[in-house]
Every structure is written in C-alpha cells, then in structure tokens.
Amino acid sequence: MNILLITTRLNLGGIGVYASSLARGLKKKGHKIIVASSGGELENVLSNSGVEHIYLPIDTSSEVGPHIMMAVMRLLKVIRKENIQIVHCQTRVSQVIGHYLEKFSKAVFVTTCHGFFKRRLIRRLLPCWGTRVIAISDAVREHLVNTMKVSKNKIELIYNGIDASFLEKGYSEADLNRVKKEFNLGSNFVIGITARISSVKGHIYLLMAIPRIREVFPDIQLLIVGSGKTRYEKQLHHMCRKLNIERNVVFQPGIQNVYKALSVMNVFVLPSIQEGLGLSLLEALAAGLPVVASNVGGIYSVIRHEENGILVPPKDVKALADAIIAVLKDKNYAKRLGQRGKQTIKEKFTLDKMIENVEGFYSHALGER
Question: How far is CA 91 from CA 19, 60, 94, 152, 283, in A?
C-alpha cells in the first residue's frame, strides 16, 4: 500500500513516537510511506530509516486559515504523483487537512484518536474522523462513541505497541553509574516519570507526594524527564521551592533514548488526570519497572491493580505517596510487579502486533471506500 501519514509535529511524546514507529514499521513490511509534518526531534529517526518526510508549516492549533489550504494543495500533488491510497491523520489540524484531501482525491482518509476532546461547535460542524477511526484504548473508544458521537461501526480498537527488543541487552553496573552521574543522581532510590510537561500528566501531585515519601526515605530522588509548556514547568519549579524539595528533584529535558532514563529508576509513576493510553507507561512496563499510576482513561486497559502495577485515584496525593512507599519497601513485591508488567507488554502491546492490526484496518477502509 502507498500511505501518507500526517501529524502536526514529530516531537518526543505519544503522538510523535506513534507516528514515527508506525511509519518505520510499515516501511519494514514493504509499504511505501511518506510522513508530512512541521518536523521535530524525531525527524532524524525517520531519515535514518529511509522514510521520506515532507515539511508542512502546520505547528499550530488553528483549524482554519491559509496554512490548511496550502497544505492541502501541496499534498494533493504528492497523492497524485505517488498514487497514495491511504491518508492517515493523527491530530485535529491534520484531520482537517485529511478531510479536504479525501474530497479532492481518490485516497481513503482515516484517523487515530489519541485522547479526549470537547465537542465544540466546530467539531460538530466539521467532525473530520474519516472513513474509519483507530481508538488507542477502551476509554478512548467509549469517548468517541458517547461524547464525540462517532458511529461504533467506524471505530476499531488498536492498542499502541512498542519495540522493546533492544532492552534485552540491559545495562551494566558501569552504565548505570554513568547514567546516574549524567542525570546528577546519587546512589539512593529514584522514582521517575517520562512524559511531556503538561498539567494533564499530573506532575504537580507527584511533587506534592515527595514530602510524605521523604519521611520514610529521606534521600529519595525524583527524576522528571520531558519537555513541554514553559509556563507549567515554571509552576513545577515554584512548587519544588515551596515544598522545600529542590534537592530531591531533578528535571531532565526529553531524550530520544527514554530507556536510559528508565534504567536508573526504581519505580515509575504516572499520576495523570487524563490519559488516552500512556506510551510512557508501556515503555516503563517493557523496561520491567514497577508502576504506580492514576486509575484514569486508558490506563486501566494496561494495569491490573496489584498484579502488574498499582492504581491510585487521580489527584490523591496521600494514596500516591503510600503506593510508592509500599513498592520501595518491598523488593520482592516490586520485582513481581515489574516481571508481570513486562509480560503484559509481550502479550498485548508489541509494535509488531500494532502494525499487523493497522494493516488490517487499512484493508477494511479501502474495502469500504
């Protein structure tokens, strides 16, 4: 198949990693893949894999304007020249572009829904969900049907998948010491989160849990890995000063090799207040880390409480702190959670399984068209 993937940007984070992984996986299967976006840190990953990238100035949340029609006109030429059969869009702006591409070409327009939206007027007037829609979790599928009023028949549940094969090599003791030194970490317990810096990820509640955790583990360190909104990041730094926990918290900008950061963590924490599925959650489980996460959104599609992780109510600082303390206190419990989490990834959330399911999804969409 000849496939055009469109996304707003290729930054480190859920959607960027999803688009990049999907493009590379489909190319390995023999499909012709072109990615169009405003670029980002993952652009070089596509280039190294031989995937063509087309730059579009669409790094905006605006759904109307000359940037939309300019992108449509440019991509129509690509569709005709490359005989594109599938246009697969990942974000709201790219969905609007895909909607018009379908109107003026023979390509089939499909989308992936990665999260939750408000059903604003423009969404009702211009839904732009395409011929078929991928929901990345059970919660997202329910949201599409109940809130966004998308027909059940158009939706297919396909979980995100990750390639964790290179984790089998592991890290030596020397490697771990080097990484800890690079991140300014000591030899004490480290809890961490790898996620974009956004209020929906719940970083603020994790910071608020540190004083309680510090009562039991005085030298506890929190590693926050990610980039995002400058204003929110300033709020997090202010909270550190307010709680007098600056010496316990290390901020690290987003990195492509996220497993380097995961390798030095004893517990991974995802205190989100809203979550489509949580790619960072899958990565942590694949790394064999015990996980403490909020019981929200698509997280319950992955975590079974006290079997392969611990679920806590969102925004509940005490429950969050107590769960982290319980895992840190019991090495056997932590190891058991980590092993079962790793098995969960192998059974349900591999990249190969995702690619195979997306191929079938494309075939169904072409058949319906």
Answer: 11, 11, 5, 20, 22
Domain ranges across the chain: 2-161+350-368, 165-348
CA 76 to chain CA mean position, Å: 29
**Cα(342)–Cα(310) distance, integer angstroms:** 14
Say what the pLDDT of residue 168 is: 60
Q: Are 2-161+350-368 and 165-348 the same fold in CATH?
A: yes
| Global pTM exceeds 0.85 | yes
Please state the rounded mean pLDDT for residues 9-34: 93
CATH number of 2-161+350-368: 3.40.50.2000
Which residue do the tokens 């020397």 mark?
174
Let me know the angle formed at the C-alpha of 83 by 78 and 88, rounded to the nearest 5 degrees: 70
**Count of C-beta atoms within a 10 Å radius of residue 131:** 18
pLDDT of residue 286 exceeding 90: yes
Where does 165-348 sit in CATH, by number?
Answer: 3.40.50.2000
